[in-house]
Amino acid sequence: MTQTTTAAAPPQEARLAPGSPADRAVKRQRVVDILDAAGRDSLLLTTNTALTWYLDGSRVHISLAGDPIAAVLVDRDGDHLVTFNNEAGRIAAEELPLGVNLHTVPWHANLHQAAAALGTGSRPPLVEGDVAAQLRAARQQLLPAESARYSLLGAELAGIMTDVLSAARPDTTEFGLASALAARVVAAGAEPLVLLCNGSSRRGFRHPLPTHAPLGRRAMAVVCARRDGLVANITRWVRFDAGTPEERDAEARIAAVEADIFDATVPGSRLDRIFGEIQSAYVRHGFGAEQWEQHHQGGPAGYAGRDPRVTTDVSDTVVLDQAFTWNPSGPGVKIEDTVQLTESGLHVLTVDPRWPAATVNGLDRPLTLQL
């Protein structure tokens, strides 16, 4: 294994690592606190979620469906990133935060073994599975620079939704709408992790991968986009007629379910108890008691689409500056935005003032765009 000590200056147009030294110092201390509690000297980070969080936004993937092309050993003597020899040049020029030591191995070597061998302690490093709950807690409270990046991504993604859906027509295909969204997301420097669309002929599917079907009279679009490691999630609806009274009623009621979830999302609340409130909210607002079983309900957001999805088994406690994406749904309706819990309450990140909205329990929430 070799260690890279210098890197050529990147050209002016090259991407630079987004990491904030101040934020990274806090993150390192959070991991050191995990080491102190476990009585260990190092921790091996290997998943995309953990790596992009700890490196504060560095891109450590090639294939969106593949494993990361880097591993990081957080040791008491410093941070060590190990990558393959064919990736090291780009990592050094564009993704390596200040203060992180870069090491290379042949493209056919085992990253995890190489990184683990760098530890200075007498025991093997902790692996993520040993401290999964503690790492998740360390990611909960977003720091100032990453909060700013997240807010910018959310606003840009909401604007993309407005632009693309405003140009849609009944004969636009689901693939056509999804491809237009994907093009705009990539042009914004983000990665479209999820692209869903259903026209009126496929309205019964809650996770509708797009097809060649036309949108028809009403359609839903869902985008989950990642930039600098952070994932913003958004759902929007468009229709080409006035809608039916039943549709408009269901849209209002699902927004009321979401409002109840927002009311329960306060510092100190446990996620399993919020999940109980979600189940009750469906009944209160005229949906069947089984509706929560038809689709996951969302949960904390940030460096994963959901971190984690909320169930009765997740007892994490809500903290200030934590991000969430709740997504209650019913037959033919769904509402979804990425929000952050601040001292002044919930702040919607995926918002575009051009999109039609109604005030629900003091918060502007998206309506269906009627063209």
TrEMBL record:
<feature type="region of interest" description="Disordered">
    <location>
        <begin position="1"/>
        <end position="22"/>
    </location>
</feature>
<keyword id="KW-0031">Aminopeptidase</keyword>
<dbReference type="GO" id="GO:0004177">
    <property type="term" value="F:aminopeptidase activity"/>
</dbReference>
<protein>
    <submittedName>
        <fullName>Xaa-Pro aminopeptidase</fullName>
    </submittedName>
</protein>
<feature type="compositionally biased region" description="Low complexity">
    <location>
        <begin position="1"/>
        <end position="14"/>
    </location>
</feature>
<dbReference type="InterPro" id="IPR050659">
    <property type="entry name" value="Peptidase_M24B"/>
</dbReference>
<keyword id="KW-0378">Hydrolase</keyword>
<keyword id="KW-0645">Protease</keyword>
<dbReference type="InterPro" id="IPR036005">
    <property type="entry name" value="Creatinase/aminopeptidase-like"/>
</dbReference>
